[in-house]
Design the sequence.
């Protein structure tokens, strides 16, 4: 399994910087429309905070990719090949479709183009099945949710019918 991917980290940080700047501009725009006055940056913020705002946005965009993405191990009672149908079904129920496949991994992405855009096309979940446990890699909230669903789906102690 590959270690830390610096290129991917920088790409994600840049995407989140753009995302945060857009959200910041939208919030400023809403405030300026609500006040019904001409836009004046100093009326919303005190003097000299421009540098602090820039540092805050940069720091947040560099920190989020570290915590927003995760790898999660999921133990299977059988092999991936035996449980593949159940695992694929979990992804389909979560609105993911298979994007591509390699010799020891499968990549799923979200079905909805709108959701993919909202997630800045960082919606892919890679399932590495070279060993047991399998490893899910992607956005933390999706990875943990899908991992729990897979663990439940592949349990042997429940009746399938």
Sequence:
């Amino acid at each position: 399994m590959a270690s830390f991917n610096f290129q991917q980290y920088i790409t994600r940080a840049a995407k989140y910087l753009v995302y945060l700047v857009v959200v910041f501009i939208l919030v400023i725009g809403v405030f300026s429309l609500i006040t019904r006055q001409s836009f004046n940056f100093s009326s919303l913020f005190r003097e000299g905070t421009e540098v602090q705002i820039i540092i805050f946005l940069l720091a947040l965009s560099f920190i989020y990719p570290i915590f927003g993405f995760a790898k999660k191990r999921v133990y299977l009672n059988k092999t991936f090949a035996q449980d593949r149908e159940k695992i694929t079904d979990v992804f389909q129920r979560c609105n993911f479709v298979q994007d591509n496949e390699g010799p020891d991994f499968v990549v799923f992405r979200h079905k909805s183009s709108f959701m993919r855009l909202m997630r800045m096309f960082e919606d892919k979940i890679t399932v590495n099945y070279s060993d047991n446990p399998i490893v899910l890699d992607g956005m933390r909230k999706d990875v943990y949710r899908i991992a729990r669903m897979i663990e439940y789906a592949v349990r042997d102690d429940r009746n399938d019918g």
